[in-house]
Design goal:
- By secondary structure, this protein is α+β, with helices and mostly antiparallel strands.
- Helices cover 36% and strands 22% of the residues.
- It has helices spanning 51-59, 76-82, 89-92, 127-131, 165-177, 190-199, 208-213, 227-243, 254-265, 267-273, 289-302, 327-343, 359-365, 368-381; strands spanning 3-6, 23-26, 33-37, 42-45, 63-64, 99-105, 111-115, 140-147, 149-150, 154-162, 184-189, 216-224, 250-252, 278-283, 306-312, 317-323.
- The strands form four sheets. It has a seven-stranded antiparallel sheet, with helices on both faces.
- The chain starts with a strand and ends in a 14-residue tail after the last helix.
- The relative contact order is 0.14.
Length: 395
């Protein structure tokens, strides 16, 4: 009988949609923060704990769990299942970089524990990392040990408009290499910026003449434990962005910065409300973003479609909204987008996962030997194929 684990149900690829006639294991009420260990900088949580709950608990002791995929009601179990990322990945990495250990239940009913409160380990296969991102197809996670960090008290947000998306994309590696270590490094094309600011009724004080010139924006958030060091980083960043061709620079006030970041996090919903028929979250090597965006524009034009977007520029994760009502045309367009991404050394999904929505493209475009090895791993964990059978590899 099919079994689907389900947390807050905020995933964007259909990985927690249950199979007909199956069982849903809901973790809504298995939601305790079991321990905040300040000596080892770790938290031990049950899978139903939300990011919002964990943030409140860690703030009480001056620590933070840095993964922020844009939906604070998301559960930690779901984040583990999909290897969730988000805007802070440029500095802290994604979920797999922050999970030190797991308790998980196998399809057989056996309970295993992996890892622990350890800074490093080299003892056999890393089952923790194998389960992370497996989208509920290998085991049911019932507890996670998470890495925590000191919570920096000072933040600043810089918004830089550019004439073209290409200029923004080419600026990203130079910002990363500058040493300012951004917490957030996002790009937004002009259409997306206009859409999210309009939907949130957000006025950033950008003059009309600048908006007319700007086809793309770079959003950079910095953080530091020291106010003076933060000021120095802002000055260094401003000088660099000016050299790289930014039309102007805006250090946003705290409330405006928070609202813009929240609006950017809601870009998926804004795009859907505007009529987008699909959203992709491809990932490419950071330096390949300009080439991929150029290819995406050509593919959209060839299929008489509109493709707009934004993305986590610091880690190469490109989010594109696809406007094409014809399902056959859209399917061909998406396949070409994914093929272009993979030719540049990228992957179909950077953080949303494969789930059900991207499974056909994943199976078509991934090396058959890789798929077959994944199937053997699946069989080793789940010989009867009961865990999330319609997701990732399943029929």
């Amino acid at each position: 009988m099919p079994v689907t684990a389900r947390g807050s149900a905020t995933g964007l690829s259909g990985a927690c949609e249950p199979s007909a006639g199956g069982i849903v294991v809901s973790f809504e009420r298995m939601n305790s923060v079991l321990e905040i260990d300040t000596g080892n900088h770790v938290a031990i949580v049950q899978p139903g704990v939300t990011l919002a709950d964990l943030d409140l608990r860690t703030a009480e002791v001056g620590l933070t769990y840095p993964v922020s995929p844009g939906e604070l009601s998301a559960s930690l179990g779901g984040n583990v299942a999909t290897n969730a990322g988000g805007m802070r990945a440029v500095r802290y990495g994604v979920t797999r970089n922050q999970v030190l250990g797991l308790e998980a239940v196998l399809p057989s009913g056996e309970v295993i524990r992996t890892g622990g409160k350890l800074a490093k380990a080299s003892t056999g296969y890393d089952l923790t990392q194998l389960i992370i991102g497996s989208e509920g197809t290998l085991a049911v996670v019932t507890e996670a040990t998470l890495r925590l960090y000191p919570r920096p008290p000072h933040q600043a947000t810089v918004l830089a408009p550019f004439h073209t998306v290409d200029e923004v994309a080419r600026a990203v590696p130079k910002v990363v290499n500058s040493g300012v270590a951004p917490l957030i490094l996002e790009y937004l094309d002009g259409f997306t910026m206009a859409a999210i600011t309009h939907s949130q009724d957000l006025d950033l004080g950008i003059p009309a003449q600048v908006k007319e010139k700007a086809q793309a924006y770079l959003l950079v958030m910095l953080e530091s434990g020291h106010a003076q060091r933060l000021d120095e980083d802002i000055e260094q960043l401003g000088n660099l962005l000016t050299e790289l061709g930014s039309i102007d620079l805006y250090v946003l006030p705290g409330p405006s910065a928070r609202r813009l970041v929240e609006a950017r996090e809601k870009a998926f919903w804004t795009s859907k409300a505007a009529g987008a028929h699909d959203i992709v979250d491809t990932v490419v090597p950071r330096a390949a973003i300009p080439e991929f965006l150029s290819a995406a524009a050509d593919i959209a034009k060839r299929h008489s479609s509109l493709v707009f977007g934004c993305g986590h520029a610091g880690d190469g994760n490109v989010h594109l909204a696809v406007f094409q009502a014809d399902e056959a045309v859209r399917s061909a367009l998406l396949r070409e987008l994914f093929e272009a991404c993979m030719k540049l050394g990228g992957l179909i999904s950077g953080e949303h996962g494969i789930g059900r929505s991207k499974k056909s493209y994943f199976l078509q475009l991934t090396d058959p030997a890789t798929i077959e090895l994944m199937r053997r791993v699946k069989t080793a964990f789940d010989p009867d194929g009961i865990l999330n059978p319609g997701v990732l590899l399943g029929s």
